[in-house]
Amino acid sequence: MKLPNTSNEDALELKMTPMIDVVFLLLVFFVWTSSFELPEFDLPGSLAELPMGAAEASNDTLPVEKFDEIIIRLRWQAEGTQIMLNGQPLDRMDDIRNRLTEITSLGVQPPVIVDPDEKVTMALAVQAYDAARAAGVDRVLFAAKPE
Question: In terms of pTM, does the model score above 0.90?
């Protein structure tokens, strides 16, 4: 009678193919999920630059009062979209740029929030965003409504 081989020399065999498959699937998963970015990151961000004329200003001037956030509301109406800058009605998008240019000329950079109604087109919201960026505002944000 022949006894079975009880030695453990060949008992442990490491299969590399399934391990490579798992590593490859993990690699594909992490590359695939990390390639998605939120649309806000595509918009230009704030840069660490001195405002125009800040280098010329001396330290003898009075400190500029800090501004709260500035809210641009775009309200949909049957006659057309109503534009409001901190509760004051404006006639055109160019008025946003003019008012914000006056504020940034004081040497402050308050955050600007664009708050469109649900029925306002995205084109008008982007025009308000562009007008604020053209005025030299570094932080322009879109308002998010809770669901």
Answer: no
